[in-house]
Amino acid sequence: MNITELVQSPRWKKFMGYVYGWGASVVLIGALFKIMHYLMRAYFYQ
């Protein structure tokens, strides 16, 4: 299986959906901490 077949497979698309979802969650939580001026924002924005 070459790289082209891999990235076009349904399993890869499902995996990348999870990756994008987790990445978006981290960004939103970090933005919430930054907006709300929580002390824990230092752990996300160092």
Summarize the structure in short.
By secondary structure, this protein is an all-alpha fold. The chain has three helices and no strands.
Can you put this structure into words, describing what you see?
There is one protein chain. This protein has 46 residues and is mostly helical. Helix content is 78%, strand content 0%. The chain has helices spanning 3-7, 10-36, 41-44. It is rod-shaped, with a radius of gyration of 16 Å. The model has no long low-confidence stretch (mean pLDDT 84).
Strand element count: 0
Stretches with pLDDT under 50, minimum 5 residues: none
Report the structural category. Answer: mainly alpha
Name the average pLDDT. 84
* Shape field: rod-shaped
Run of helices and strands: HHH
Number of alpha- plus pi-helical segments: 3
Spatial gap, N to C terminus: 40 Å
- Give the helix level as a range of percent: over 70%
Outline the biggest β-sheet.
Answer: none
Instruction: Work out the radius of gyration.
Output: 16 Å
Which characteristics define this entry?
46 residues, mainly alpha, 3 helices, 0% strand
Secondary-structure topology with pairs:
Layout: H1 3-7, H2 10-36, H3 41-44
